[in-house]
Amino acid sequence: MARKTVRILISAVLYIFLIWFILPVGFGVLNPGNILGIILCGILLIKFSFPKIYSMINCFLSGNKITKVLLNTGKVCFSLFCIYAVIISGLMIFAVNAPVNEESTAVVLGAQVKYGRPSVLLQQRINAAYNYLNENKNAKAVVTGGQGSDETISEGQCMYDTLVGMGIYKDRIFIEDKAENTQQNIKYSYDIIEKENLNKSLAIVTDSYHQLRARLIANKQNINSDIGAINTENTFIGYITYPTYFVREWIAIPVELLK
Fold first, then answer.
1. Percent of the chain with pLDDT over 70
2. pTM of the full predicted structure?
3. Cα–Cα distance, 219 to 230 (Å, whole number)
4. What is the pLDDT of the chain when averaged over all its residues?
5. Is 33:253 a contact under the CB 8 Å cutoff?
6. What are phi and psi of 14, to 5 degrees?
7. Count of CB atoms within 10 A of residue 102's CB?
8. 93 half-sphere exposure, CB direction, 13 A CA radius
């Protein structure tokens, strides 16, 4: 009875996450994160929700030497991946909670600009930067991001204009408008920090799931300053897409390490 109850509870959680990974597709978000999430939930649901079918599949594949080896190899790989996912998730949570030193220079990572205005994702980062600058009157910020082919203004300029419009003094914000990716965001921003003699302690402003990869990128560039995390607050869309982007980082982080 107890095992059946546990199986039902696990199945309910898996169904919730399966729906959570599928929902972003309706908002135009389909990437390795929700594809992997859907696959993992599907495999685990077969095991916990349909044990008879799972047992039949096992028996069928175990009847042939080649498929049995493949099955056992797959089980080992799946177990190792689950262990990896737990470890990397723990490291991501650790990076999210990295403390920010007093008056650290905020490095606000760019995101898409739509029709000359911040996208939902970019506005979240702007809001987080505004809250930090408003609470730390002597802190300054570098807003970083170039202009994409589908953007009418650079991401850096868009963030600058929006923050100034929200009441942050111009002399507290430095624009970096050439970066095309996170590596360049951090490198070019740090060049500005050194040139303008700003506080070399960094406070990276981005989404929480992105903090670990951003920190790794900074370390790869031999930026040995203290690096703190300023995390965005999710909107409704942010909550829907969060598991998708979180799982995507499981793939993106090792890829970054191998570059």
1. 100
2. 0.89
3. 17
4. 93
5. no
6. -65, -40
7. 9
8. 6
104 vs 38, 146, 149, 200, 226, CA distance in Å?
39, 23, 32, 7, 9
Query: How confident is the model over 113-172, as pLDDT tens digits?
Result: 988 899 888 999 999 999 999 999 999 999 999 998 888 899 999 999 999 999 999 999
Residue type, 197: N
The Cβ-side half-sphere exposure at 216, using a 13 Å CA radius, reads 18
Q: Which two tokens stand for residue 155?
A: 């991401």
Dist. CA 52–CA 46, nearest whole Å = 9
Rounded to whole angstroms, the Cα distance separating 142 from 159 reads 10
Q: Is the pLDDT of residue 2 over 80?
A: no
Tell me how long the chain is.
259
Amino acid identity, residue 205?
V
